[in-house]
Amino acid sequence: SVFGLRPGRTGMDRFLPQLSFLGDVHDFPAPGVAGPARHPLLQLPPERLKMLSGWRALIDFFFPPRCPFCGENPDENNRSGFCVACLEGIRKAARPRCPRCGLAFASDRGEDHLCSDCLSGNGHFGKARALAHYEGLIPEMIARFKYRGDTLLAKPLGDLMAAYEDPEFSFGDYHLVIPVPLHPRRLRQRGFNQSL
Question: CB under 8 Å to 160, separation ≥6 — which residues?
Fold first, then answer.
């Protein structure tokens, strides 16, 4: 990494992490229009947002975006910011799988069916899904994010999860999605709740 800096999604993420949510100005709703972003800086006038976006472009010019995991050049076609090698190291969960808990079965043949845990009635939830198998780069990415405080992985991992599509699992079917609570002692140790 440049000057001993950790790899990050963009140069701005490394220097001004509190502004790392700022993408291009066109990514955000116009002032007064409801949208997903609610950060206080988004209440700034449009000309100030354009100025901040300009600063981001300038910093990114001198310190180009890097893969948040390995530091290589990111894949331009993937909004998460991971490089091609890291993306190939993530084996997405596929079928057949348990329609309730989302567990992918070892064999790639056959149809979806309940796993033994779901057949025995274990678990107090309706449905669950996993983005990928817990193998390859995924355990290391999660460990770096959760236990080593590498919060630069938060947005890229979140972008991967946001891009997940499953016709049998739509967030629109649910009235409320709740993150898993974190014990206050663990929250003090980490400094953040990774599920938010």
Answer: 80, 82, 90, 131
> How does pLDDT run across 18-68, given as a tens digit for each residue?
444 444 333 444 444 444 444 555 566 777 777 777 887 788 788 888 888
Give CA angle at 50 (45, 56), nearest 5°.
Answer: 130
Q: How far apart are CA 88 and CA 164, in angstroms?
A: 16
Burial (CB < 10 A; 0-12, 13-18, 19+), residue 55, is: middle
Tokens 């972008």 belong to which residue? 159
Residue 169 φ then ψ, to 5°:
-140, 90
Measured CA angle at 40 (ends 34, 44), to 5 deg: 80
CB pairs under 8 A, 24+ apart, for 169-174?
169/102, 169/127, 169/129
% of the chain beyond a pLDDT of 90: 4
DSSP letters of 64-77? ----TTT-SPPPTT
Q: Return the bridge partners of 130, or none.
A: none
